[in-house]
Amino acid sequence: MTFWYIFTIIDWILFILISMTVLYLGVFAITSLFVRHSETPKAKKQNRFIVLIPSYKSGRSLEMTVKSILGQSYSQRQFDVTVIADHEDEMTMFHLAQHPITLLTPNFRRQSRTKSLQLAINNLPQFKIYDAVVILEAGDVVEQEFLEQVNDAYEAAGTKAIQTHKLSLNRDTTPARLSAIFEEINNSIFRRGHISIGLPAALASSGMAFEFNWFKDYIQKAKAHWADKELEAMLTRQHIYVDYFDKISVYNEKARQAEDFNRKHRSWIWTQFRSILRNIRYLPAALINRHYDLIDKLLQWMLIPRMIMMVVIIIMGILVPFIYMTAALKWWALFAIVLLIFAIATPNYLVDDKWDSTFFKIPVVFLSSFLNKFKLGRKFNDMIDLKN
Question: 315-347 burial string, b = 16+ CB within 10 Å, else e?
């Protein structure tokens, strides 16, 4: 078997797999343009919320989130806040103890948002009755009207789960800008683009609200360290629609360092992979019963992660011309199409003079994270201007 034959097979397999992901992203990027933003009617009742904030070694970010949620215009009698502070430092715990919250202090051997949420639910006072649970994470900042808006949305949606609009609080480094851009692309493609054609929105790890009794029952069944995808799968299998509200904002502090950025994305990729393994057995029944929501969800989890997709496209676009110039044309065209899709899915406020260069730095972000393990990452960051 010749080198040329092997190269051609690998080249086309990669191209076809990535093209399928690009096609999926492109379809929903376009449908996201046709969402009509109607005003959410004012709710006739004030639901009682329990706000859960799981945290792990977050420090100042956790304090910021707690202060944010406590400063609500919503009636103070209609919501309680429980913070699950895992492995937080003494100073952070001291400051948190000054606030009117329930503070749980587990010491899990391994970080687990699922165990934190289960612990919080199991430690709620039996005499208190809640209508819905809201989940935030350390680093989230919300406006004073957040719970009031969530209450209106929850009543208007008429479903057991809603997702609010997560967006970036900071864009001061390349990893932070990438996180901000990918967050908004997620909002456009996996949330706004989906609800525009009647499919449920994807959950986003925080800024979520669930019907309390449903969440209380099903969070106990979650086993993964990050329960978001498991809850999403449970909702979809039960034909429970997840609605998305674009005008309710949750500002999230993004990772500034390449290592933190890559660690979070590795966790997301692993969670997505586990979700496929756990739910792929439902695909035949979904096809027979025309359960389009579940079919779409499984296809969504099978997509090549965008970070990996962009790295492959950029590397192939650089290396292939040295082997066979004509074969590189399709990679260059695919890169242009991907940038067009991302431009469609990215809000105007993020498309600035650094937008194009940010995507070209994706392989650099990966490499910087790898070099950090050998204590070379800081010098590398300075060389390629990753901090700006």
Answer: ebbeebeeeeeebbebbeebbebbeebbebbbe
Among 216, 234, 255, where does a domain finish? 255
Q: Is 271 part of any domain?
A: no
Residue 198 shares a structural domain with residue 113: yes
Burial of residue 45, with CB atoms counted within 10 A of its CB: 0-12 exposed, 13-18 middle, 19 or more buried: exposed
Mark whether 22 and 55 lie in a shared domain: no
Assigned token pair, 115: 């165990």
- Lowest average pLDDT, out of 36-40, 73-77, 241-245, 299-303, goes to 36-40
Angle at alpha carbon of residue 345, lines to 239 and 309, rounded to 5°: 85
Rounded Cα distance between 66 and 85, Å, is: 11
pLDDT tens per residue, range 198-235: 999 999 889 999 999 999 999 998 887 777 888 999 99
Residue 275 CB-density burial (10 A; 0-12 exposed, 13-18 middle, 19+ buried)? buried
Among 221, 257, 224, which residue's Cα sits nearest to residue 237? 221
**Per-residue pLDDT tens digits for 369-381:** 555 544 444 544 5
- Sign of dihedral through CA atoms 281, 284, 288, 291? positive
Verify that 20 and 58 share a domain, yes or no. no
Alpha carbon distance 280, 292 (integer Å)? 14
Structure tokens, 298: 């499984």
In this predicted structure, what is the pLDDT of residue 383? 44
The token duo for 186 is: 């997620």
In a domain, 108, yes or no: yes
Please compute Rg for the chain using Cα positions.
Answer: 22
Q: Is 289 inside a domain boundary? A: no
Which of 226, 255, 284 is the last residue in one of the domains?
255
In a domain, 290, yes or no: no
Residue range 85-115, pLDDT digits in tens:
888 888 888 889 899 999 998 888 777 888 9
pTM above 0.85, yes or no: yes
